[in-house]
C-alpha cells in the first residue's frame, strides 16, 4: 500500500528532478513538473488519494501556473458561480469525471477498441507502448475519471433499489393500506426490519437485479428472500417482487436443493429453515416454492416499472 510522505516546501521541491510529463504540468521555478508529483510533495498524501484534476485545481489555487484540464461537456456542468464552495467544486469535478468516462465509453465499441489495443501492444517496446497509450486514449485523465466514478457509484444499487420500491408503492397500496413501519430502501435488512416492505396488510421483498442467465448469487438471494417470507406465520399477504421471468422460472422449476441455495445465508436462517421445514437437502427449490411458498405471490416488477424490462445498456 502506498504510504504518505513528509510534506515539502516549494523551495525544497525545486531541488527535485521533475518526472516525465505525460499530459498535464505545473510550473515550479521555471520548470515543468507533473501535477501529481508536486501535489504529493506539498501535501505528503499518497498519489492514490487524489486525481490529477484535483492536483491541478489545488495547485492553481496556490498561484502556480498549470496546464488546463478541459473535459467533455465542461460548459454543460459548469452551472454554479465562479467562486465555488469546496463541496460544489467536488461535485463539478465528479461531473467532469463522468463526462470524460462517458465520452470514452460511448465514442467507440469498447470490446473492439481493447482488442485492437491488445494487438497493437504485442511485441511493443517502451516507445511503441507510449504511442499506443496516446493513440488509444489511455490517458491520465481517463484513469483519474474512472477511479473517481468508481469511488462514487458503489451505492448505485441502493439508489436503484430505493427508487424502485418508492415508485411501486403508490401502484400497489390498496385503499386503507398503510406502511406499518419504516421500509428498508437500502439493499439488505436489519433485525428490526426483516422485510423490505411491511404494511398493515402485507410483507414484501424486492429483488431489482436484472438476471442475465448465469446468476448464481442472484439465485441464492431470491431463494433466501422466499424462505424469509415463508417463515413468517402472520396472516399477511406475502409477495416477492423480481425483475423479469427468469427468477420466477427458476423458483418454480429448479431441481437445485435448498441446501445449496442457502449455502451463503446465515447459520440462523439455515437453522430456522430446518426447524420449520426439515432438512434443507431434502427440498428442491421448485418443491419448496410449490409446497411451502405457494401462498407467496411472485410479481414481475417490469409490469410496474417498465424501464426495468430494458437491457441495461438501453436504460
List the helices and strands and how they pair.
Elements: H1 10-13, E1 26-28, E2 31-33, H2 35-43, H3 52-61, H4 74-77, H5 86-106, H6 110-121, H7 126-135, H8 140-152, H9 156-172, E3 197-198, E4 202-206, H10 216-231, E5 237-242, H11 246-253, H12 258-261, H13 267-277, H14 285-291, E6 296-300
Helix pairs in contact: 2-3, 5-8, 10-13, 11-14
Structure summary:
By secondary structure, this protein is of the alpha/beta class. The chain is built from 14 helices and 6 strands. The strands form 2 sheets. It has a 4-stranded mixed β-sheet, with helices on one face. A two-stranded antiparallel ribbon has the order 1-2.
The whole-angstrom Rg is 27 Å
Structural class of the helices, strands and pairings? alpha/beta
Count the E strands.
Answer: 6
Overall pLDDT level: 86
Dominant shape = elongated
Indicate the multimeric state. single chain
Number of contiguous helices: 14
Distance between the amino and carboxyl termini: 38 Å
Determine the strand fraction and express it as a percent band.
5-15%
Note poorly predicted spans.
Answer: 73-84
Amino acid at each position: 500500500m502506498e504510504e504518505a510522505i513528509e510534506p515539502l516546501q516549494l523551495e525544497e521541491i525545486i531541488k527535485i528532478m521533475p518526472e516525465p510529463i505525460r499530459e498535464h504540468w505545473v510550473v515550479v521555478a521555471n520548470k515543468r513538473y507533473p501535477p501529481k508529483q508536486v501535489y504529493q510533495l506539498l501535501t505528503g498524501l499518497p498519489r492514490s488519494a487524489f486525481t490529477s484534476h484535483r492536483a491541478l485545481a489545488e495547485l492553481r489555487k496556490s498561484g502556480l501556473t498549470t496546464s488546463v484540464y478541459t473535459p467533455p461537456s465542461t460548459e454543460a456542468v459548469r452551472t454554479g458561480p465562479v467562486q465555488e464552495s469546496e463541496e460544489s467544486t467536488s461535485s463539478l469535478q465528479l461531473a467532469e469525471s463522468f463526462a470524460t468516462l462517458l465520452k470514452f465509453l460511448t465514442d467507440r465499441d469498447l470490446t473492439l477498441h481493447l482488442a485492437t489495443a491488445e494487438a497493437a501492444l504485442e511485441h511493443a517496446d517502451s516507445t511503441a507502448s507510449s504511442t499506443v497509450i496516446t493513440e488509444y486514449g489511455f490517458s491520465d485523465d481517463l484513469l483519474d475519471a474512472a477511479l473517481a466514478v468508481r469511488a462514487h457509484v458503489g451505492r448505485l444499487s441502493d439508489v436503484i433499489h430505493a427508487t424502485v420500491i418508492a415508485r411501486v408503492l403508490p401502484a400497489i397500496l390498496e385503499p386503507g393500506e398503510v406502511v406499518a413501519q419504516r421500509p428498508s430502501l437500502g439493499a439488505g435488512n436489519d433485525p428490526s426490519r426483516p422485510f423490505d416492505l411491511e404494511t398493515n396488510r402485507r410483507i414484501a421483498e424486492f429483488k431489482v437485479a436484472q438476471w442475465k442467465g448465469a446468476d448464481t448469487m442472484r439465485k441464492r438471494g431470491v431463494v433466501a428472500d422466499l424462505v424469509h417470507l415463508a417463515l413468517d406465520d402472520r396472516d399477511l399477504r406475502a409477495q416477492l417482487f423480481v425483475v423479469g421471468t427468469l427468477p420466477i422460472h427458476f423458483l418454480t422449476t429448479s431441481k437445485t436443493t435448498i441446501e445449496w441455495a442457502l449455502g451463503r445465508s446465515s447459520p440462523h436462517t439455515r437453522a430456522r429453515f430446518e426447524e420449520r421445514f426439515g432438512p434443507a437437502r431434502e427440498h428442491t427449490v421448485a418443491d419448496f416454492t410449490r409446497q411451502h411458498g405457494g401462498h407467496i405471490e411472485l410479481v414481475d416488477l417490469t409490469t410496474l416499472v417498465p424501464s426495468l424490462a430494458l437491457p441495461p445498456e438501453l436504460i
